[in-house]
């Protein structure tokens, strides 16, 4: 699925619609350049999950946890130097736990992600425009029926 958004608000709406459909065990790999909108779409996903906390990128602490309809585990693995660091923080317990995982810069740890991971690439076209490419083909239809 390919979507073009022309404002932060539209990107937030896309994220919200995705979040409304996520189930326990959902995993999202978010990728895109710095400033592409990974954290912004995460804010929308959190909203769709009923999270009321302020969402920030966990760049220096690797993971933030939020409570909503189901728990949301928000990872930023940009600063991971060695894949073994993910094992040290108990990454697999989050992946196969009772919540949804969002992994910013997910390609860095792609070898650890389950085959059913929803892959979202965000490409910055200009200051306001984003191309969002969602690959949900292996996720057993979690996003099936999402109208954007």
Summarize the helices and strands and which ones pair or pack:
Blueprint lengths: L1 E4 L2 H14 L5 E5 L6 H11 L14 E4 L5 E5 L7 H5 L2 H5 L4 E5 L13 E7 L5 E6 L13
Parallel strand pairs: 2-5, 2-6, 4-5
Antiparallel strand pairs: 1-7, 3-4, 6-7
Helix pairs in contact: 1-2
Output mean pLDDT. 91
Topology order in helix (H) and strand (E) letters: EHEHEEHHEEE
State the helix count: 4
Strand neighbour order, sheet with most strands: 1-7-6-2-5-4-3
Low-pLDDT stretches are none
- The N- to C-terminal Cα distance equals 10 Å
Major sheet size, sense and barrel closure: 7 strands, mixed
Helicity level: 10-25%
User: For the record, what is the CATH homologous superfamily label?
Assistant: P-loop containing nucleotide triphosphate hydrolases
Question: Which secondary-structure class do the elements indicate?
Answer: alpha/beta
Describe the structure concisely for a colleague.
With 148 residues, this protein is of the alpha/beta class. 24% of the residues lie in helices and 24% in strands.
């Amino acid at each position: 699925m390919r979507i073009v958004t022309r404002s932060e608000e539209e990107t937030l709406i896309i994220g919200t619609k995705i979040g409304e459909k996520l189930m326990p065990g959902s995993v999202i790999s978010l990728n895109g350049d710095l400033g592409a909108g990974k954290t912004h779409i995460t804010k929308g996903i959190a909203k769709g999950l009923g999270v009321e906390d302020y969402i920030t990128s966990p760049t220096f602490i690797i993971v933030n946890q939020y409570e909503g309809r189901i728990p949301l585990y928000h990872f930023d693995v940009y600063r991971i130097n060695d894949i073994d660091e993910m094992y040290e923080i108990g990454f697999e317990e989050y992946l196969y736990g009772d919540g949804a995982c969002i992994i910013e810069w997910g390609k860095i740890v792609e070898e650890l992600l389950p085959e059913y991971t929803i892959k979202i690439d965000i490409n910055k076209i200009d200051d306001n425009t984003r191309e969002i490419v969602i690959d949900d083909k292996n996720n057993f239809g979690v996003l099936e029926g999402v109208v954007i």
